[in-house]
Amino acid sequence: MRSGLRPSSLAASLIGLLIILFLASFADAGRLARQRAGEQATRGELAAKLRLTDLALFTEARYTRHLSLADLHSAAQDHPLSLEHFPSGSLMPPPAHLRNHAPLDRQTTLPD
Amino acid sequence: MRLWIARQRYLIDFTLASLARRKTKNIGLVLVFALLVFALASVTLLTSALRQEAARVLAQSPEVLLQRMVAGRHDLIPPGYIERIGRIRGVQQVEGRLWGYYYDAVVKANYTFQVAADDPPPAGRIVVGPGLARFRGVQAGNVLSFRSYSGKLFTFTVDAVLPAESELVSADLVLLNEADFRAFFDYPAGHFTDIALSVANPQEVRTVATKLAAALPDSRPILRDEVLRTYQSIFDWREGIALALLSAAILAFAILAWDKASGLSAEEKREIGILKAIGWETGDVIRMKLWEGMLVSLGAFLLGYLAAYVHVFHFSAALFAPVLKGWAVLYPSFTLVPAIDGLQVAPLLFFTVFPYAVAVLVPIWRAAITDPDAVMRG
Prior knowledge:
The structure holds 2 protein chains of 2 kinds.
Chain A: H1 7-50, H2 62-65, H3 87-90, H4 104-107
Chain B: H1 2-21, H2 23-57, E1 64-70, E2 73-75, H3 81-86, E3 91-97, E4 99-104, E5 109-115, E6 125-128, H4 130-136, E7 143-147, E8 153-161, H5 167-170, E9 173-176, H6 178-185, E10 194-199, H7 205-215, E11 219-223, H8 224-262, H9 266-277, H10 282-313, H11 321-325, H12 342-368, H13 372-377
Parallel strand pairs in B: 5-9, 6-8
Antiparallel strand pairs in B: 1-2, 1-10, 1-11, 3-10, 4-5, 6-9, 7-8
Helix pairs in contact in B: 1-10, 2-8, 2-10, 2-12, 8-12, 10-12
């Protein structure tokens, strides 16, 4: 047998290292979550203070910026036959309350 | 036990030597495999972190928002509505919100102008979101001019910039006081954009919404619950779309892996024949190939997953930014709070490692149980 590291030892060390890094990623996720919890709280406080309803992720069109407040006809809201043309819109379903075809509150006849 | 370990080590040594004989092909396979896991894991980690972010942050949004609809479109709330809503039993607090959109033709970006109800800036001053401040290159004390929709030029002094960590909800915000807002947009006195309400008893939110819809038939109440559901479904949808787009890549890889794993080359067949002829048992051949499948797929999974983790949580999913950004000019820079659970990682591990290891086994088993002479002759 040749002297030096056997291929199996090399593979075991490599896979072992990757497994340690994999487990470390969970520990790192916990650390980041603790570290970034304060930042998230700041966002929550601002949302409460300004009564914000949406994330500022898609600022390209008004119905993608505030998509929870979008019109019933948001895809064709600029004029009839105005087809959806913003990239966000093509990747986004209509708001949940519009997909029920009727507002949820109007389906409720009895108090909860 | 020691014997078993020693035996497995020899098998792994042999497997690695055999893989090394087709080095380029196998390294290529691991890299493509890892790339695929990277793409899948990045989508899963990003969407689940965004979903959790929306759920936590928007849990503080107003309990009910009331819009007025005219001809199926969102319209201004006329005077008198707030008083009528205040009389509905169960409503704790009613507040008219004033906000609107402004398209900045200079930089071709959309801003959200909003009146800060609590602690508004003094007249002639605004508070801007960190995204806007970065994009326009302004800081507190600088002056910003906007041409209003009526054609008049308004000049505001930046009072402050909102904290950078709030960018995910405030990137494009311009906060100003009510008088400035009404003057800028020529907003009719006593009118509001929509109404935010809070309800005394959380159990009664739906009942209050029903009463609102009955009292003001032209209104549309939007519950916080619906806002949260909208965001849940958006990220589910986006994840689904991304996975659907990736499915072509997954299929291509599946064909490649199947071809590589299931079709034995003449060389591999001869190798098995020789091993059997020199006394290897069928079980040893299968074990050797099982190690090959495990090393390739587990290595690729771990590499791909780790790269995806670093990409999403340490580089803010930079590769996906163009997809989320669309045509938007203002895109928030944000760091996400990791939200990983075993239920996300386990299926990914199972569906990447297990099929490959099995695909390797089937043809080997078939070749290993046949007569060595027949296998060697092909």
